[in-house]
Structures are given as structure tokens and as C-alpha cells.
Write a structure and sequence with these properties.
This protein is an alpha+beta fold. It has one domain. It is 25% helix and 31% strand. It is built from five helices and eight strands, in the order βααβββββαβααβ. A five-stranded antiparallel sheet has the order 3-2-6-8-7. A three-stranded antiparallel sheet has the order 1-5-4, covered by helices on one side. The longest helix has 17 residues.
């Protein structure tokens, strides 16, 4: 069963500086500030589905509100960790589970830099493997995306064309009694 995801996102230095701009990062306030910023970031991402899309074939799998948000620092980068539970546990009996993480506008680059960035829980790794598929938009799709003005209404299908996809391949494991 899949019960949710543990996420860890590393922000680029410019975005990290923007998030911290004007914040009290004195040694005595740093942890409180980072906690406040993590909570605010998760609250803002709620309305964008945490940029996370999980499907069984083409049917979306629902999840609950993210929790346990925490910012840490890695040199000039902020790292956001949080948990994203599914609304109901999902059996892993098919080869049709897909996970995508993207900004629907396609303006924010979100990517796994290596397949080792993706880790399955011990339980899942006993019955599942995964592949990481790279995006492959057509020249027409790329041309369409580049032709959109910055103030265009979002095309919520567009971000999927420019993102990687994690495909879970799981074998059904008999339940022991």
C-alpha cells in the first residue's frame, strides 16, 4: 500500500534569496523564521495541489493536506521537506501508477537531477521498481508554449508536457495470514 509521499525539494539560490528577503534570519530567530516560512509555503502550495499529481492510469489519486513542513539550509539553497499523505491508502497491484511534479504554468523548472533522488520506502521497494521518463514535447507543443504571453491564462495541461514522470511497476504480493 502507498500511504503518501515524503518530499524534499531544493530551491535554487535565487528563489531561496527571494523567500528569505526581509525575513529575520538572526541566529536567535532563524529556526522560528524557517518554520513560519515552511508553513506559509505549504499553505500557498495547497491551491496548486502541491505541484504533485499522482495517477492510477489516467484517474487522479487524491491526497490529504500536507504536514510536517520544514525548511533547512544547504549553503545558498533552501530545502523544503514535508509529508503528503494520500486521502486513502492505495494498493500497489498494477503497472499504471504515475507520479508527476510540475508547475502547471510550466514556468518553474522542477526536476529530479538523478534517479537516485527518488527513494521508495522499504515496504514498497520489496514489491515495486520505478522508471523515470524524461519529457518529450513535440516541436509544435514547444512552439505553442513559447508563444504564450506572460499574462496568458494558465493552460493546466501544459506543465505535464515538460515534466518527468515516475512510473511505478509493482507486483501484487499475497497477503500473509
Amino acid at each position: 500500500m502507498i500511504t503518501g509521499f515524503k518530499m524534499e525539494w531544493s530551491f535554487d539560490p535565487m528563489t531561496s534569496a527571494y523567500i528569505l528577503d526581509g525575513e529575520d534570519m538572526s541566529p536567535e530567530s532563524e529556526q522560528e523564521t524557517l518554520q513560519k516560512l515552511a508553513a506559509s509555503t505549504l499553505e500557498n502550495m495547497l491551491y496548486e495541489h502541491y505541484f504533485t499529481y499522482f495517477y492510477d492510469d489516467y484517474k487522479p489519486i487524491k491526497y490529504s493536506q500536507a504536514h510536517s513542513g520544514k525548511f533547512s539550509r544547504n549553503r545558498s539553497r533552501l530545502v523544503l521537506s514535508f509529508e503528503l499523505p494520500l486521502s486513502m491508502p492505495k494498493p500497489v497491484t498494477r503497472d499504471s501508477l504515475r507520479l508527476l511534479i510540475f508547475d502547471s504554468s510550466y514556468y518553474v523548472d522542477m526536476a529530479w537531477t538523478s534517479i537516485s533522488d527518488i527513494q521508495l520506502s522499504d515496504e514498497l521497494s520489496r514489491q515495486c521498481r520505478f522508471t523515470l521518463a524524461q519529457p518529450n514535447p513535440t516541436p509544435e507543443q514547444m512552439s505553442y508554449a513559447m508563444s504564450l504571453p506572460a499574462n496568458a491564462d494558465p493552460d493546466y495541461e501544459l506543465g505535464q508536457l515538460f515534466t518527468q514522470t515516475v512510473n511505478l511497476h509493482c507486483a501484487s504480493v499475497p497477503q500473509t495470514q
